[in-house]
Amino acid sequence: MSNTKEQEPSLTSYFYGPGFVDIVRVITTTKANIGRSIEDITTKAASKPTSNSLIILVPQVILRYIYWLFSAGSMVIASAFICLAMLLPHVIGFVLIDIIGIVLSQIARLFDLLYFQIRKVSNVCDTCHNRFALPVYVCDQCGAKHLALMPGKYGILHHTCTCGQKLACSVLDRKHPRRDLQALCPFCYKAGREESVLSSNSRAICIPVVGGASAGKSAFITAYAQSVIDDRAPKNGLHVRFYDDDRERMYQSMTAAYRSGVVEKTATVTEQGRSSTISFSFFLEGDGLVPSRLMQILDIAGETFTNNDENEEQNQYEHCEGIVLVIDPLSIRDFAAKCKDSLDPGDSGSISNAPLEDVRSALHIKLQNVSDTDRNGRIRTPLAVVINKIDSTPLLEERIGSKAVNAVMAADPETFTDPANTTDFLCRQFLMDYDMGDVVAHIEQDFATSRFFAVSSIGHTAGNGKGFEPYNVTDVVDWILDIQDPALGKALGARTYAKADLPVKEPVYGLFDQILENARVQAEVQTQTASQPQAAPSQATSQPMPTPVQSSSATTGVPEQPTAATPTPSAWGSSFAQEQTASEPQSEPVSQPQPARPVEPVGSSPENPTQPETPPAKPKRPVSPLAPRRPQPRKRH
């Protein structure tokens, strides 16, 4: 546990050092033996002459020198042949074996890296929120910390600890997999802490749920966890395993809250040694789900999020699969003023006090320096914007709920063909109509992929004695899985989404009411057209009769002179044709058609059968209570 670079507690592989040392030792030993042999010959050749006579001494010295020269030369030549004949093949054979060993270790290492990359195997620390592929493994024999338990210089499939224990170092070893060893977060270990991670050899799906205080984040997480763990996973043959005992106890609390309909507010963590973010983590395992998935849903207190008061650096935004931004629509001042009379006292007392602009700004600050961006500078991480609590007032159901979706799709079926895309448009339009257009514009500018959802996490006012009845909660995470992990979405039976550029129609102030009004007018025109009687063929060329108009005096019984009404366009065409025919010279007399007998108007009184009753004036359409009032310009001080 040190900040300095540590020596790996594994013995170096024979192919990465000891083998070369053996070769050098063999060459050195052979060289030393040859040197000793030459030295022995030299010693014998330099022995003291046995005679003092020059006649005998000189030839004896010459003969000894020739003997020494011949013996030493023979020894060198023989040693060279011995090295070539015996040592060289040994060296060549070892070098080939060593090269093969090194290549195999690199192939195993590459296989592991590709396995991590293709399977997207990773680990996430619950304390520092960093993501990493290789944790620090602890020897189960002596407790030594292995920082690089991978194929390489310390072994191909196994590392040998300094205590002699063999530790698996590759996914190819399935008999004693390294995931069975205790694992530590490498980032925390380098910082002087030992934080265990339990997600070894799994794929982590990290989804932070953010928003202001009392926006409904905890209720959203509770509703989703219950749906997946109790319903969708068992129904699709998946096994659920909790990350640890703490998460299992957390789920038991969620279950009690789900049944009672009361969710406790996420507590603000003030202790500096504790993480500000609470993670609810569980594994999903199944035959068709390889590797297993670690679902990690992160929650942070709204006050901490908006005030940037976290105790630790929030590294989860750098690698998360998607972000869920929960919005309380009642926190929008203009909308809250419109629906305050229709709110339940329980809903009125749980309105988020965090302005939506501050929540969006806080999210932008946390992401701007850590997230991956495209060439246009937009964040690649998908953002799901959740307008929560749509059960709190009927106005929300009529603006962004299923009722509004059906009405808009019926009003413009060519544009709005998909309910999910229609909901996205309605949510953006809702924010636009209630002076939150800047928030929508910033989200579209900051994120490459975003979608809006209308959700009710609880389904009713919290604390009214009923359990959860969530609406559209699972659709939010399904959309993130559809983008980031389709295999998991398929295994869970999740909903898929049509690929389309959102929004399908650009929101403009007042567009919602305009769409419905246009549809109403068009329906009335079609109804009037269908109800008009068709003229008989024999009357097509007849002279139209003036339509009498009843004056206000008709109601008093005072007779009045009939006034000719303006002919209809069809009557104009008939009159014009008859005038043209009358002005042309006739070669033979043509009989003029008799004027058609006027049809007695429906509803005419018996006292005055020739004058129809004036149709009543069309009542003025009342203004919809949902139609937002255009804000008046504010005075600058």
TrEMBL record:
Transmembrane helix recorded as keyword: yes
Listed transmembrane segments: 65-88
Highest taxon listed in the record's lineage: Bacteria
InterPro entries assigned to the protein according to its UniProt record, in alphabetical order: DO-GTPase2, P-loop_NTPase
Coiled-coil portions: none
Segments forming domain Double-GTPase: 206-402
Pfam families noted in UniProt: DO-GTPase2
Positions with biased composition (Polar residues): 548-582
Disordered: annotated segments: 526-637
Residue stretches of biased makeup (Low complexity): 526-544, 583-594
UniProt keyword terms in alphabetical order: Membrane, Transmembrane, Transmembrane helix
Protein name per the record: Double-GTPase 2 domain-containing protein
Taxonomic source organism: Bifidobacterium tissieri
Upper taxonomic lineage: Bacteria, Bacillati, Actinomycetota, Actinomycetes, Bifidobacteriales
